[in-house]
Write a structure and sequence with these properties.
Helix content is 31%, strand content 36%. It is an alpha+beta fold. β14 and β15 form a beta hairpin. α2 runs antiparallel to α3.
Amino acid sequence: MRAALAILCIAVLAYSCTSSAGSSTMAAPPPQALPVVKLNTSSATTYQEFPASLEGTVNVEIRPQVIGYLEKIYVDEGAYVSKGQPLFKINDRVYNEQSSNAIANVQAAQANMEKAQIEVNRLTPLVQGKVISEVQLKAAQSAYDAAKANYAQAKAVKGNADINVGYTLITAPVSGYIGHIPFKTGSLVGRGEAEALTVLSEVNNVYAYFSMSESDFLHFTADIAGKSVEEKLHHIAPVELQLPDNTIYGQKGKIELVQGQFNRTSGTISFRAVFPNNEKLLRSGITGKIRIPSLHQNQMVVPQEATYELQDKVFVFAVADSNKVVSKLINISGKSGNYYLIDKGLNSGETIVYSGLQRLRDGMVIAPQTISMDSILKSNPM
């Protein structure tokens, strides 16, 4: 019995020693290596974006001035035409007949006027010689005046008939692009039609129309030099146009007009910017976004990847003493691309964790792997 008890004690002691030795050999895991970046103040440009619709600087509705059947359509939808180029031809037979009739009336009126003039010329010396009474000459003069008036009226009718003949050939009043043509050859058209024959858009320059809310307008004007809105318009920096495919149009535009009052229904005020369109890439009806730049001096730039949100607030993990991380609440003053502009919560020279935030907790120790902000900006510009 004593021998068995001694063996049991020896076994327990041996197990205890083995466990202690095993525990002493298990080392703590090393701190995780994470990229960190040192922050510095710099200048950055942010953009306010507003939905916009584009129109040509001139949009002309092409409408017939005379009634008739559409005889020819010289252009196709979407074609570019030059000023004076023929667009449509209305059958002109009726108007040519009216012009011919007017010519005959002019000739008859001219003959009557010349006849009356001859009579006046014949009677004038007879009155002077007191061969006939002056009343006869006055009657002849009145007949001449009436014939002269009839001649002038006939010429006016002839001029009007020629105008109508001219209206049967419709030409382009400006250079531009042809819009939709709702009529076909043979259609009866006239001045009373609800639809125009087409719309001609001049797009050497294009207008971009956009609107601001009351609060956006007040913030916008507060940051621009000038006492009046007109003065402020002269100091607005050139704006950009973001196209529907999210590319930025190659040429900058200028805001040149703001309406005088707010729309009571929508609570917005409308602006107009003009963009050059030398290559004719922009057309009426295109939509996009106006991007208004704003330069921020001495701002802290933080990559969005280095932040996380908690209860609608934005935080970063700053690297403190002994490489411990501490969460810090930041205040965002603007956004530029994939970067936040910070005005509170961080100081210049502080180091924050750039990525891998999902595995971090306050007080954890990391092995920082420093990367430069310049390299981040180079690979992902603002």
